[in-house]
Amino acid sequence: MRRTLNRIIKLQWRRRRRFRAPKGLYVIMGGATGPGKNQVCDIGMGGLSFYYVDRGAKANRDHQTLTVSTAGQPAVVHVPCRTVSDSDAGELLLLNQRVRRRSVKFERLSARHKAQIKDLIKKHVINHGPQ
């Protein structure tokens, strides 16, 4: 119950709204030990979130770079970010593989990055409505 209340409070204080991402929008993060290529859950000008299978790698909360891509395109945007939350989603895929949800906040974005993210949201996401 407390976890749900915390989530509601956090959603109320988000500066920029997020949009539910359609299938085919992926985030690529980390190397061989990172979560790899995963479906984006929601995205906005302030950040994004995605589910991934926990392989035991520790979440790096410091500055990172992630790549957002669409089906059929290798890379759309390379964005600096930091992990805001990395919590257990409560699902098991296999015996020892837990599903987690990671939310990242975009760091200082250049004008080019802002234009790329805005274009990505307009072309691929906006028709799915706010979350």
What are the key terms here?
single chain; 131 residues; alpha+beta; Thrombin, subunit H
Strand order of the main beta sheet, please? 2-3-4-7-6-5
What's the SSE pattern?
A: HEEEEEEEH
- Helix segment tally: 2
List unreliable stretches of 5+ residues. Answer: none
Strand share of the residues? 35-45%
CATH level-3 fold name: Thrombin, subunit H
In total, the number of strands is 7
Task: Name the CATH superfamily classification.
Answer: predicted glycosyltransferase like domains
Largest sheet: 6 strands, antiparallel, barrel
Could you give the distance between the termini? 21 Å
Would you state the CATH class? Mainly Beta
Which structural class best describes the helix and strand composition? alpha+beta
Q: How would you classify the quaternary structure?
A: single chain
The number of domains is 1
Quick one: overall form?
globular
pLDDT averaged residue by residue: 76
- How much is the radius of gyration in Å? 14 Å
**Do you know the CATH architecture?**
Beta Barrel
Query: Can you give the helix content as a percent range?
Result: 10-25%
